[in-house]
Amino acid sequence: MPVTSSISSIKRWPSAEVVLSAANAWAREAAEQRQDLIALGYFGSYARGEAGFGSDLDLIAVVGTDDRPAMERSRDWHTEALPVPADLLVFTAREWQQLEAEGGRFARTLRAEAQWLVKRETSQVR
Asked: Over the stretch 55-65, which tens digit does the pLDDT of each residue have?
């Protein structure tokens, strides 16, 4: 989140290096806690090197299975520890394979941009 300097009222956003370092640590912890995690990464402005003041961190996770609706899956991932707001999309392995097979715009964007922080050896994620 933006912080105010002790001698100024100017807000500063964490640097991309700080955000990505925190994302790496967060991803390592997630991998230790979640045995069903296949892959975890980021895309969007941080992946393109275009992040600036106010940029959120777009995250993507691929898990083995999850019967909950897609919009509910990210609720138990605690992204509050990250230094900027984060949006997390959680796909099951089957959904991920279908997304890639369909080859739509979003799949092409992820293929071009995604930076994977965690990839299990059995991962089908490119």
From this structure: 999 999 999 99
Q: What is the pLDDT of residue 11?
A: 74
Cα 15 to Cα 3, 45, 46, 97: the distances in Å are 12, 13, 10, 34
Number of C-beta neighbours around residue 22 at 10 A:
17
Both structure tokens of 77: 């991932």
Domains along the chain with CATH numbers: 10-119 (3.30.460.10)
The C-alpha atoms of residue 60 and residue 43 are separated, in whole angstroms, by: 8
Closest-CA residue to 116 (of 42, 59, 58, 37): 42
